[in-house]
Amino acid sequence: MKSILNRKILIKNHPKKIIYIPLVFSIIFSYIVSLKLDISILLTFEQTIFVILSAILFVFHESIIGYSTISKIRNKINEYKKNNIKLRMLSFLNKKGASKNYDDFLVETERDIVNFSKGVEEFKRKSYRLYIIFTIFGFLVIVVSLISSDSLFINFLLNDTVTLDKLSRLKVYLLNFFIFGQFFTIPIWIISAYQAQQQKNEIINFFDIENISGKLKEYIQEKNLKNIELEL
After folding, report:
1. Between 20 and 30 A from 41 (CA), which of 25, 119, 123, 219?
2. Are residues 11 and 191 in contact, defined by beta-carbon separation less than 8 angstroms?
3. Interior angle at CA 138, CA 167 and CA 187, nearest 5
4. With contact defined as beta carbons under 8 Å apart, do 141 and 46 qualify?
């Protein structure tokens, strides 16, 4: 179980990378790639991508790392705690005198699931933090695209020290930067979703009767060996 929980998930375990990587790639691509920056297209794009991403996040958090997953795992543990299941498991493993070890195994497993729950909450926090960055970029795309380079507000701020041509180039660069920032943020969710899904599947598979019986047998044997060592 601990080896499963120690698996790395991009959003949770590499918080600096999820910020720096999109920024670096956005800066590079803003210089070498020119996007079609029609205002109507930009606004439609932003509205569409926010709807899609919000739907992805909802499904992502609820189906992959939602409370239903943790509840399902805890129900599995409670099933194995039932006395009739316990007796049948120990009989199957030929470990009838290992009742305490059986209970200890489930207690340790429960602690691991508590740690998994904490990891889920941390994962959600960092995921929403990334979503805030994504949202800010989208808001800036809309704001910059709507501001005219020859507006009185811009002229007042710059005091006529910058030419309209330079302002236009700056506007295009900023729009490219913010849009590419969004483009390179989305793959982080895709990679993290795959990693989280793999971890969830492995944890659920851990409680399959074939898997948990083998783990339980190993645990009891290990405990017995330690007790023998202490008595020697």
Report:
1. 25
2. no
3. 120
4. yes
Pairwise CA distance, residues 30 & 33, whole Å: 6
Question: Residue 146 is which amino acid?
Answer: L
State how far Cα 69 lies from the chain centre.
15
| Single-letter amino acid code for the residue at 229 | E
CA distance linking residue 134 with residue 141, whole number of Å: 11
Which residue has 């005091």 as its token pair?
A: 159
pLDDT tens column, 18-56: 778 878 888 888 788 777 667 777 777 777 777 777 776
Torsion from C-alpha of 42, 45, 46, 50, nearest 10 degrees:
180
| Residues in Cβ contact with 155 at an 8 Å cutoff, skipping those fewer than 6 apart | none
* CA 93 to centroid of chain Cα atoms: 38
Any long-range contacts for 104-110 (C-beta under 8 Å, 24+ apart)? 104/219, 104/223, 105/215, 105/216, 105/219, 105/220, 106/77, 106/80, 106/81, 108/1, 109/1, 109/77, 110/74, 110/77
CB atoms near residue 169 (< 10 Å):
12
pLDDT exceeds 60 at position 186: yes
8 A C-beta contact, residue 176 and residue 45: no
Question: pTM of this prediction?
Answer: 0.75
Residue the block writes with tokens 């399902």 = 72
Which of 77, 71, 73, 65 lies closest to 119, judged by CA? 65
Q: At what angle do helices 67-81 and 164-206 cross, to 10 degrees?
A: 10
- The CA dihedral of 65, 69, 70, 76, to the nearest 10 degrees, is -150
Question: In one letter, which amino acid is 142?
Answer: I
Quick one: tokens of 176?
Answer: 């490219």
